[in-house]
Amino acid sequence: ICIREIYCRYDRKHHHSYLKSKNPTSPPSSPLISGSSSNLTFDFVRGNVGVGNVPYGRLVAANAETFPVLDGRNLAMAYVHYEPCQLFVPHSHPFGDELFYVAKGKTMRASFVDIISGKLIVTEIGEGQVSFIPRASIHYQQNLDCKPALVLSFFNSGDPGAMVTFQSSFPNIPYDVIKESLGGGKMVNEQLIEHIKAKVSTLLAVED
């Protein structure tokens, strides 16, 4: 679930067989590793495994890749520290639904585009509340308060994957396709589009 342009290795390998399986909640592919309790624990606060490369706050992911005990168990979790007013830009998780739980914070906004109707669904929740974000839907989250917030995200996949909508698509689409998609005209020129491409290529989170 690291915020980067990937389909995480586990789900990319297994999602076709998962869809075809009559029993998608099949047993884990490997047993628990015995002999050390460290194999069964994951440190979101002090550890350096699964830490996302984000410019603001802190994002740490426990999934089948970073926490191998989750391999085959259809579980993953993310620990996200939001700075005041921080917005995580639109992204999607192609292989997992998300429960977005506010562990600390006054008001968090969690919004997604419904894949059936195309409508933007907006929820605002506070400490102790949870919001649901469907699998593969484009969504974004924002801390609406002037104080830091802590969010825990839970997924029903060992690696739900993460695709940052603009970062993974816009910079790679040819100029003429983007121009036509934006309606053409003199205002939409190659210089403007290249400027936008350069800006979104590394953008993951912003602060107002």
TrEMBL record:
GO terms for molecular function: manganese ion binding. It is found in: Secreted. Residues 42-190 form the Cupin type-1 domain. It comes from the Eukaryota. This is Cupin type-1 domain-containing protein. One of its GO terms (cellular component) is extracellular region. It comes from Didymodactylos carnosus. The keyword Metal-binding applies. Its main location: secreted. Keywords: Manganese, Metal-binding, Secreted. Belongs to the germin family. The keyword DNA-binding does not apply. SUPFAM superfamilies: RmlC-like cupins. It holds the Pfam family Cupin_1.
